[in-house]
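Journal club side-thread
Mid-discussion, someone asked how the predicted structure for our own chain would compare to the paper's figures. Pasting it here so we can look after the session.
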Amino acid sequence: MSNVETVSRFGFDAIGTRWLIETEEPLSQDLRRHVLDRIAWFDATYSRFRPDSLVSRIASATDGGRFEFPDDSLALFGLYDRLHAATDGAVDPLVGRELELLGYDATYTLRPAPDAVRAVEHARRRPAWAADIRRDGRTVVTRRALVIDVGAVGKGYLVDLVSAQLRQAGHTGFVVDGSGDLRHSGPRATRVGLEHPSDRRQVIGVAEVRGQALCASGVSRRSWGEGLHHVLDARTGVPVNKVVATWVVAQEAAIADGLATALFFAEPQRLAESFDFTYVRMRSDGRAEISPDFTGELFTDK
């Protein structure tokens, strides 16, 4: 945490990534345990990489069924409703099967399925969030096996949940950083480098974050072959190729996380009709775009 004289750090690995919590006062052992338990509970519900998770049960329910999600699903799925509408369906948590077909599956084969298998899958109508899921409060009803992937929002939302735990425990100055998705609290701003998408040793700029969240997304973070990465247009199942990295600042990490994905498909002006945020976006030709009210600077002249 920048500009804090005394910093206590709690680092750990969870949901496949590195986490770091910086606070002005050390976290108690009980709070550390509660944080880890909260993340584990979230993972047990939403991870498509765990065979015992709730979403894995949905993925194996050939004839569909009724599934009860925890209370946190209301805000999480409600945000997906808004992102799905704002991107005309490009952001969709039912993109999970398309990710599997490209090799980003539960066992990390990182090998695309054979053309014949993909052809059979694509002969069927692609599942869509608005058409294939019925929700009644926390209850989700399906009619066939569906692979839910909350990667566009989930880590940011989990950062918000952990931040709420810290506040409830009396911490007012902190940074919760889930490997690039972070939330800041306190009077002193923190400066965050915007990592170059093709060279992690460089930054293209710096953001100043105070009392807000900053989330980033880039095609190089999870890529495994020529043109193969985790940012797919759910309408086509094809990885994007015009934008390579995005950074979004918003009041909540879930919103910043979701918009960092949405900016790969939608123009900022369209998203601004539904969300309050600032951004930096880098295109595949090296051009960088920055919103006029972004608090920070770019080091590139493109």
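Post-session note: The radius of gyration is 19 Å.
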